[in-house]
Design a protein that fits this description.
mainly alpha; 4 helices
Length: 149
């Protein structure tokens, strides 16, 4: 076989391995990111389930050694990010932004419900006040049918 052809075939084989390695590496990064989101959201939900009377102890929920799977995942993200931190940081920041936007939307919706509730309560008070004023006016006009209120 021609040495030049053999060298080209070797280069093609190396390129193929490199492409496969990069695809596997990207798949590993995506799976690690997905696992991080799943576990991080479980940690957030456990903080939200904490009674409102006191602050949750974050160290007990996601501190080192509390959840070995989470610790291993954080280590994996660190390992992935050691040569190219940008994709890992971008992935985590994208997740954080989506959580922040969801929280802002929920806060806005809650605020609208709260304003509507206050408005209805105020209308109820005003209607009740109008009823009391009308009754007192009626009673003051006709002293014989009303007792002191």
């Amino acid at each position: 076989m021609n040495p030049r052809l053999q060298q080209n075939m070797l280069c093609i084989s190396c390129l193929h391995r490199l492409v496969v390695f990069r695809q596997e590496n990207e798949t590993y990064k995506k799976l690690t990111s997905i696992q991080f989101v799943r576990l991080a959201e479980a940690k957030i939900n456990s903080c939200l389930a904490h009674p409102l009377e006191s602050e949750p102890n974050i160290e007990e929920i996601c501190g080192a050694g509390v959840d070995p799977a989470f610790d291993k995942l954080i280590g994996s993200l660190g390992y992935i990010a050691r040569h190219k931190p940008r994709p890992v940081i971008d992935s985590v920041m994208f997740w954080r932004k989506s959580k922040s936007e969801a929280a802002n939307a929920a806060r806005s919706e809650l605020k609208q419900v709260w304003i509507l509730t206050l408005h209805l309560m105020l209308l109820n008070v005003l209607n009740h006040t109008d009823t009391i004023v009308a009754a007192r006016t009626w009673c003051s006009d006709d002293h014989t049918s009303c007792s002191a209120s």
